[in-house]
Design a protein that fits this description.
Layout: E1 2-6, H1 16-26, E2 33-36, H2 47-56, E3 62-69, H3 75-88, E4 93-98, H4 103-108, H5 116-132, E5 147-151, H6 155-164, E6 167-169, H7 175-191, E7 199-206, H8 211-224, H9 231-237, H10 243-255, E8 260-265, H11 270-283, H12 306-309
Parallel strand pairs: 1-2, 1-8, 2-3, 3-4, 4-5, 5-6, 6-7, 7-8
């Protein structure tokens, strides 16, 4: 399993300098990917625009959306923006997509919240047609377009993974929850006759450095997930606030078969990057296991294209 780090694109106080520094430092390892969130009616930065910025100051680290709410965007425009990020990053985009559960985001763009599932299916069926056709440019660097991951937990989610995607991205939670959903993704993948295995991504939240950071991180999660009602408390209770909790979480996801685990900051402070490096950089080599005596960063040697994985629609 490899470990990535989230970009603080939805955090208060995340300015231009912090984002650029964060991305530049991530490119040096030990992290293998940079991830972003998507929320329309919130103060956060646009996810794909943020990744384009990150692409301009990095060379190796993978860039991932975890996730973008697909039905909030016109199909052709989403295809074009994703292809643009793939071009400016030289083929480093992984496009995680899901429905998005926030009704107010759909209201903001006059989209039909109740029809979002059907529209998402249609969107997924069209994306590679745009990338492989001539109507909408640019041509992505990756054969067949960026890697597509689908998130969610309904039966429809896993059918979408099997029919349209290259893998599954989990919405967060303890390793045992990830393990259950990963099993369902594998089962549906096989039922759809797909070769090999789906890519499996997960994510968690961290706030290291003491009680003040932990409290700030908790406040952010309660605010960001306020729409879930009492469930927001459960999300906040899962915040990783000590090195021991981080490594237990990482090892747990690795044991459950995760391929890439994104750890998202909940405090907009460069010190959070340093503190996570101290934990992950000391004990995890970013190339599928705990660090050995050789050390080294976790940057990938190269990204496997969808045509090599047998992915696509």
């Amino acid at each position: 399993m490899q470990v990535g780090i989230g970009v603080p694109n939805t955090l208060h106080g995340a300015d231009r300098q912090l984002l650029l520094t964060w991305a530049e430092r991530a490119d040096d390892g030990p992290f293998t990917s940079l991830g972003v969130f998507d929320r329309l009616r919130y103060h956060g930065l646009d996810p794909l625009a943020t990744l384009s910025t990150c692409a301009a100051v990095t060379e190796d680290v993978e860039l991932a959306t975890s996730i973008v709410a697909g039905p909030l965007r016109r199909d052709a425009m989403l295809a074009k923006k994703a292809a643009t990020v793939d071009v400016v990053s030289d083929g480093r985009l992984t496009l995680g997509l899901a429905l998005g559960a926030r009704r107010d985001d759909y209201e903001a763009v006059d989209a039909d919240f109740e029809r979002r599932g059907r529209e998402f299916d249609e969107q997924l069926s069209r994306l590679r047609d745009y990338w492989e056709g001539d109507d909408v440019g640019p041509d992505p660097v990756q054969d067949g377009g960026p890697t597509i991951l689908v998130g969610g937990e309904s039966d429809h989610t896993y059918r979408r993974v099997g029919r349209f995607a290259d893998g599954y991205v989990h919405g967060g939670g303890p390793p045992r929850a990830f393990g259950r959903q990963a099993e369902r993704a594998h089962a549906t993948w096989a039922e759809c006759g797909r070769p090999g295995d789906p890519e499996l991504w997960g994510h968690g939240y961290f706030a290291l450095g003491g009680e003040d950071a932990a409290e700030r991180g908790r406040e952010y999660l309660l605010d960001y997930y306020e729409f879930t009602g009492p469930f927001a408390e459960r999300i906040a209770d899962g915040l990783l606030t000590t090195p021991q909790e981080v490594m237990q979480f990482v090892r747990g996801y690795e044991e459950k078969g995760c391929d890439e685990l994104l750890l998202f900051p909940t405090v907009a402070d460069e010190e959070q990057f340093d503190l996570l490096v101290d934990v992950v950089g000391d004990e995890w080599d970013g190339n599928g296991g705990e660090r050995d005596e050789r050390g080294g960063g976790g940057v990938r040697d190269g990204k496997q294209h969808s045509s090599e994985r047998g992915g696509g629609s």
